[in-house]
Amino acid sequence: MTLGKKLKGNGLWESSRMMLPEHKSRIIRDERETLRTIKPILDEQKLEEIECTLALSLRAHVRVTVVLFDPFERKLLSGFVTSIHTHSREFKLQWAEEWKWVNVDDILEVYIV
User: Fold this and answer.
1) What is the pTM (predicted TM-score) of this model?
2) Tell me, what DSSP letter sits at residue 83?
3) Name one Pfam family in it (predicted).
């Protein structure tokens, strides 16, 4: 079967042989971005584990690393929990001379360093 006969059946634009590399890479990138923008839903056990680890850091002054949700990259913060606001579900993470308020709902994972 010749290429001309193949193209007649599927049409010029449906043939995989005619796809430009730029188009293929754009399609793949768009699919990845669509999948990455969805935040995973954590179960109750994982949420409780996160909250307990944050409370332990506050009480025992141990360093924790927090993995935050970001649609495009993996964000890591490491420091000590110095304050927890349960009503707003935020905690203050401090390292060196810097600090940041972090929302508990943005956390994917937290572990002790």
Assistant:
1) 0.67
2) E
3) YolD
**Per residue in 97-111, pLDDT tens?**
999 999 999 999 999
Residue 85 pairs with which residues in a beta bridge? 90
The full DSSP string for 28-61 is HHHHHHHHHTSPPPPPHHHHHHHHHHHHHHHHH-
Task: Tell whether 27 and 79 lie within a shared domain.
Answer: no
List residues bridging with 99 in a β-sheet.
94
Q: What angle do CA 81, 83, 84 make, to 5 degrees?
A: 100
Count other C-beta atoms under 10 Å from residue 44's C-beta: 7
Q: Are 81 and 93 in contact (CB under 8 A)?
A: yes
Q: Are residues 13 and 30 in the same domain?
A: yes
